[in-house]
Prior knowledge:
Blueprint: H1 8-23, H2 34-37, H3 40-53, H4 67-73, H5 78-97, E1 102-106, H6 113-117, E2 125-130, H7 132-144, E3 153-157, H8 165-170, E4 181-184, H9 193-205, E5 212-218, H10 232-243, H11 257-263, E6 266-273, H12 274-281, E7 295-302
Parallel strand pairs: 1-2, 1-4, 2-3, 4-5
Antiparallel strand pairs: 5-7, 6-7
Amino acid sequence: MQEAVVSRTALFTSLIRAIHARCDPLPVFNDPWGDKLVPQVVVDAIRQRALLAQGLPPDSSNALPFLVEDFVRTNAGYAGTVTRSRYTEDALAAALARGVRQYVLIGAGLDSYALRHANGNPELHIFEVDHPATQSFKLGKIKELGVTLPATVHFVAADLSKEGLTDALARSAFKRDQLAFFSWLGVSMYLTPEANVAALSAMANGAAAGSEIVFTYLNEEVFDSRKAPASARFAELQRTVAEVGEPFLSGFDPNALPQLLSTIGLHLIEDFADSQLVARYDPKDANGLRPSSHSHVARASLGRKSR
């Protein structure tokens, strides 16, 4: 992302979660904060983009009250955003039941877990690690909303392209010798292969054995011109993120992922494609979620297998 500019994809992702909770018949994930954290100017910009996509004049939006919601729901990342959020927090709940008391969100964006749960779980320390620009924006919105978070929520501003994760967490109350649960959602596709391996290695080297990581990735075949071309929806998503200065750069090979993780001290527990998570959380297709054919969510443990 650009220096001193809040992540556009973080804003859009937050809006996806809110629209899903507000508009879909049987939401699989309930996040009411997106509408509060995303400024109206961003919503207005999306409205204009939706009108442009339909070839409609700028003054016709009043006749289309659900224009923004309908436009966002057609995004290729919509289903993956809500199902990855549900999967991650299900896995986190299981980790908390096992005694984990540290939750680290890498590239936290406008994730609202702390807003929804921090006050109800005083033993859990939450560490939000993100670029200073995005984090400053988020903290400003939280203050503007009059929300006070407990001291167990730690905001760690860090440009991880310039500072290692281990060093960033060392500036906080994070305890390397205690179990932790890491989420790394919607980030790896914006990094080079080398940066992705370095990030996973930092997580593996910076936490106690038995800690877990949930992360998302794109199947690397989408970047291979020799393979079948991406769907029109995914191609449009690629163009959109590139236009806002946050292009997709790389992915992982699902078949090679277990061995890759093993070389850096991680054990792959599960790896789900978007379609598998949609089938798990919305088996009757109540919400009309259209999964991407290229997105995955993986869960891994450090040092030993987790139950």
